[in-house]
Amino acid sequence: GLIFQVASFQGVALRSLSTSSPHDHPEHGRLVYKGNLAKAVLGVKFFSYSTSIFNLFMMPYIMLKSGIGVESLLVQAAFYGLIGIFTFVTPVTLHILTKGYVIRLYYKDEADTYTAITYNAILAEKVTVFHQKDVKIPDITKMFTTFYAKTKSMLVNPTLFPNPQDYNHLMGYDKSSYFKFEDLEE
């Protein structure tokens, strides 16, 4: 019964999370990008968190039933360590890897500012506003970073921009300083 309840709770919570946010936010500007993994990222994080909570509640019960408490200290330490890894390390790692995943990106032409929507540690949407000149491209290709907005790493998929010009402007590729004819002739 308990596992089924946890699973059905996950389903309900995921549905309510995904339907509660219409993407029209005129105050942020026009929507120029929508990440296609947003639901997957949310689902994986949510599953990881609920599993961790489930583990925390089940640990004393398992200890009591299995009689592992009577066994040697080493077995106990190993058991707690293993559960601890799954309970705390996985959600933390997931958060570090996905915190820069841009769910939606809005652009205001008149101010040349972007509003990036990402998920924070508690799965709520987080708003980051930055100017185009705040965008820094990492010198080396980083696995979970397309660009930095001030100091925050952001991850976008260039192929998901309906208008490629929006991506070029975001990255500053349209400033033409990147492509000088003199450089080509050398």
Give the gist of this structure:
The chain has 5 helices and 7 strands, in the order H-E-H-H-E-E-E-E-E-E-H-H.
Walk me through the structure.
- The protein is of the alpha+beta class.
- It has one domain (28-171).
- The protein has five helices and seven strands.
- The protein has helices spanning 2-19, 38-66, 73-98, 164-171, 181-185; strands spanning 30-34, 104-108, 113-119, 125-131, 135-136, 147-149, 152-154.
- The protein has a four-stranded antiparallel beta sheet with strand order 1-2-3-4, with helices on one face. It has a three-stranded antiparallel beta sheet with strand order 5-6-7, with no helix packed on it.
- It is elongated, with a radius of gyration of 22 Å.
- The model is unreliable at 4-21 and 180-186 (pLDDT under 50).
- It holds the Pfam family TMEM70.
- The chain crosses the membrane at residues 40-62, 74-97.
- Keywords: Membrane, Transmembrane, Transmembrane helix.
- This is TMM70 protein.
- It comes from Pycnonotus jocosus (Red-whiskered bulbul).
Features:
186 residues; alpha+beta; four-stranded antiparallel beta sheet; three-stranded antiparallel beta sheet; 7 strands; disordered C terminus; membrane
**Helix and strand pattern:** HEHHEEEEEEHH
Strand order of the biggest β-sheet: 1-2-3-4
- Major β-sheet annotation: 4 strands, antiparallel
Poorly predicted runs of 5 or more residues: 4-21, 180-186
The proportion of strand residues reads: 15-25%
Helix content: 40-55%
Q: Structural class from helices and strands?
A: alpha+beta
Number of continuous helical runs: 5
Radius of gyration of CA atoms, rounded to a whole number: 22 Å
Extended strand count: 7
Shape annotation: elongated
Q: Span from first to last CA?
A: 72 Å
Count the domains.
1
| Mean pLDDT reading | 78
Q: What is the assembly state of the chains in this entry?
A: single chain
